[in-house]
Design a protein that fits this description.
Blueprint lengths: L1 H16 L5 H8 L11 H8 L6 E2 L1 E7 L4 E7 L4 E6 L2 E6 L7 E7 L4 E7 L2 E6 L4 E5 L7 E6 L5 E5 L2 E5 L3 E6 L7 E7 L4 E5 L2 E5 L4 E5 L7 E6 L3 E7 L2 E6 L4 E5 L7 E6 L8 E3 L2 E4 L3 E4 L7 E5 L8 E5 L4 E6 L3 E6 L7 E2 L9 E7 L2 E6 L3 E6 L7 E6 L12 E3 L2 E5 L2 E6 L7 E7 L7 E5 L2 E6 L2 E6 L7 E2 L3 E2 L6 E7 L2 E6 L3 E6 L7 E6 L5 E7 L2 E6 L4 E5 L7 E6 L5 E7 L2 E6 L2 E6 L7 E6 L8 E5 L2 E5 L5 E6 L9 H5 L3 E5 L2 E2 L3 E8 L3 E8 L4 E9 L3 E8 L6 E8 L4 E8 L2
Helix pairs in contact: 1-2
Length: 733
């Protein structure tokens, strides 16, 4: 137990004292449940956790695999159903065999999980920025959403026909007598993060106080008392309120008289961020069991050290088991038949920070920072599910990125591990190669080499034979801060730098790389995509920067796009760029790279995206603790695919694919008496009508003046009454 408490205290200390957004600081914050995150730094919370107003333009969400750290767990012993909240999703389990939960279904919500609760056949899910969603679990394998409580609840509790929700600035009381039509009946000003109820009083806890609120009249709740203490979590039962304070102390307050609350007892350094009380025992997710039969003299009955910082706990003595939402390890069953010696069993469904995603065929390969490689079946994009995994082992394997080619996955942690993924349900290690760069932040494959970066280092690994990879000498990058990403094109490696911009290396001989050019940036550069002779760079605060690299010795900026907040990654397809930005994915037209402009966006994300991957027609994003999502930009202009094959027996036309002299020579054939020929831009917007008249059947030829058209890509559509034909046109003056 002492080891667990020491870890807890260190995390709290780091959480309170850290400055800036260093890796250690962010990591210390992410180990707290979302409802507690902005105790430390509001800017971090606003940037990484709190979603902005939900909105989109020409982009839709196709599906999500939403899982991350285990945040919440709650069950219904009567129906043997358990709900496990992880990241921004909920897994429903059958716990008829408590030691071996069986997954029945999954739910994706639009925010990190704050609280889950089961009453009768209804599941209540609070997620940050998304209110409380209510699902019918009458058929657990097919949960159905039936209503929503539109309150930004950090936490909630239920009693009789009311839900008591604590939001950022108030307690809201919701009438749920008609579960299909909940409505607010009362509220009072009281900030807090956790809530519980005993009798006619609700108790809320937060950074500044423990409050007692009289709710005997739900339409007019009144704060009647408070204590100036910092409460992490609490639960009330009868005359007592059981709390964990920020000091890590487990404290029992006597609330027999809510107007005069007093501390009855305390156990030092016995804490956590959740409490579950059942009978004479209080269970803390560490995992610790405290006997509170004598509230004046509580004592620890038994404990077991879990490998990571646990978030939540639920217990039912009827079958002698408890369950812990156990951070990245997943759902951990605990045998408590002997309370003096609780035993943690093997965890299941673990995940944490999704750092990168790679798509091949019907599978998405997700790099989880600590949990390793997750293999997600995306054959049905609306319902992706976990098919297999490879745990990279170790407390901090630091898997930031991975690459897949054919039947092999290349996974760099403290070594480059090569997996055989011919059976995605059971990936196996076939090759391993020590790498000097340590924990690689990015990996890129070209031909028979894998290229990796980390910190200030660049390294090549020969992968001719995946079973026997061979590392080449590493190359120290000059004046580099932190290498974030790498892009390989032809004989050059393009490396983005958190301090000094873009580094361009000549890798014609991978064993002897050398720098040939450097683009100096005033801002940290995160992501890069190179197309033709242009590098598209995403930055910390200045958005997209467009750099001409035709001469790699002297790269020059030629354009830019100011994005809201920071930008992390980019993917370019033809004349469209997808950008992972703060809280959203943006779609830009780059038909003219000098002046990119926005044509679509999707900001209804539960968390800011980190990296993106395009696999037509979908864009996949990884988003830290909320797993991965699948988006589609549905204003994609016009497709040429299969048009000729479909209608060539009815109409057809010919044109020079490139206009260079200001004249478009158009020849078309029709078996109908009338048609319209129109010009569209690359975004599918009608630019002009080239021809609209009644014509004779047969061959028609026209020379059309397009001298005033700007340079770019266009589409010409020939339409008749019931058919159409499409051709692409490139205009270069």
């Amino acid at each position: 137990m002492s080891k667990h408490i020491i870890v807890f205290i260190l995390l709290v200390f780091a959480f309170l004292t850290a400055e800036g957004f260093g890796i250690d600081y962010i990591d210390s914050l992410r180990r707290l449940p979302p409802r507690l995150r902005n105790f430390g730094d509001a800017e971090y919370f606003e940037t990484f956790i709190k979603p902005r107003q939900r909105d989109s333009l020409n982009v839709r969400c196709v599906g999500r695999w939403p899982f991350g750290p285990g945040f919440e767990v709650y069950g219904n012993a009567g129906s043997n159903i358990l709900a496990f909240g992880a990241g921004s999703g909920v897994l429903i389990f059958d716990i008829t065999d408590p030691a071996n939960p069986v997954r029945l279904s999954q739910i994706a919500v639009n925010g990190l999980i704050m609280q889950v609760y089961i009453r009768d056949s209804f599941l209540f899910v609070a997620s940050y920025g998304n209110g409380i969603e209510v699902f019918n679990l009458a058929v657990p394998s097919n949960p159905l959403k039936i209503s929503q409580i539109n309150v930004p609840a950090r936490d909630f509790c239920l009693k009789d026909t009311f839900a008591y929700c604590v939001a950022e600035d108030s307690l809201r009381i919701i009438n749920i007598a008609d579960i299909f039509n909940p409505f607010q009946v009362g509220a009072c000003k009281d900030s807090g993060y956790v809530v519980s109820i005993s009798g006619n009083y609700v108790y809320t806890g937060g950074r500044w106080k423990l409050s007692a609120i009289n709710v005997s009249n739900p339409a007019n709740p009144i704060v009647v008392n408070f204590l100036s203490v910092w409460v992490y979590t609490l639960t009330c039962d009868g005359n007592h309120c059981y709390c964990v304070l920020n000091s890590g102390n487990f404290t029992i307050y006597n609330i027999s008289n809510p107007l005069s609350i007093w501390q009855e007892s305390q156990l030092n350094t016995v804490g956590g961020v959740d409490i579950f009380k059942l009978g004479f025992y209080v269970y803390l997710p560490g995992f610790v069991i405290v006997d509170v039969g004598d509230s004046a003299n509580p004592f620890v009955v038994g404990d077991t050290i879990l490998p990571v910082y646990a978030q939540a706990v639920w217990v039912n003595n009827n079958f002698g088991y408890g369950y812990v939402a156990n951070d990245y390890v997943g759902l951990t069953p605990i045998n408590i038949n002997n309370p003096t010696n609780p035993i943690a069993l093997a965890s299941i469904y673990g995940a944490d920070d999704s750092r990168d995603v790679f798509v091949q065929g019907n599978y998405a390969y997700v790099s989880n920072l600590r949990k390793g490689l997750k293999i997600i079946d995306i054959s049905t994009p609306a319902n992706p599910f976990e098919a297999g995994e490879y745990d990279t082992t170790g407390i901090l394997p630091n898997l930031e990125s991975s690459w897949v080619r054919d039947t092999f996955a290349y996974v760099p942690t403290n070594a480059l591990k090569i997996l055989n993924i011919q059976n995605p349900n059971n990936p196996t290690l076939i090759g391993i190669c020590p790498i000097a760069v340590g924990y690689a932040s990015d990996i890129c494959l070209r031909d028979s080499f894998a290229y990796l970066i980390e910190g200030r280092c660049f390294q090549s690994v020969k992968i001719n034979n995946p079973a026997t990879p061979e590392s080449l000498p590493r190359y120290g990058l000059p004046d580099l801060g932190i290498a974030w990403s790498i892009f390989i094109k032809d004989s050059f490696a393009y490396i983005t730098d958190g301090d000094s911009g873009l580094r361009i290396l000549n890798i014609s001989n991978p064993a002897i790389p050398f720098e040939v050019g450097h683009f100096l940036s005033s801002d940290a550069i995160y992501g890069i995509f190179v197309k033709d002779t242009i590098a598209y760079l995403t930055t910390l605060s200045t958005g997209l920067r467009v750099v001409n690299i035709k001469n790699p010795v002297n790269p020059q900026e030629i354009g830019y796009y100011i994005a809201p907040g920071w930008t992390r990654d980019i993917w370019v397809v033809d004349t469209v760029a997808y950008i992972a930005a703060s809280d959203c994915v943006e779609v830009l037209s780059i038909a003219n790279p000098v002046a990119p402009y926005r044509v679509g966006y999707y900001n209804s994300l539960p968390q800011s995206p980190r990296r993106i991957f395009y696999n037509a027609p979908y864009l996949f994003y990884s988003a830290f603790e909320s797993g991965i999502g699948i988006l589609e930009w549905y204003n994609t202009g016009i497709s040429e695919k299969d048009n000729n094959a479909v209608i060539q027996n009815k109409i057809s036309f010919e044109l020079s694919p490139t206009v260079t002299n200001g004249k478009l020579n158009l020849i078309f054939y029709s078996n109908q008496n009338s048609c319209e020929v129109s010009l569209y831009d690359d975004l599918g917007r009608k630019f002009m009508i080239l021809l609209k008249e009644s014509i004779k059947k047969g061959r028609i030829q026209r020379n059309i003046n397009v001298i005033d058209l700007p340079n770019g890509i266009y589409f010409i559509i020939l339409k008749t009454k019931d058919e159409q034909l499409v051709k692409k046109l490139v205009v270069i003056h």
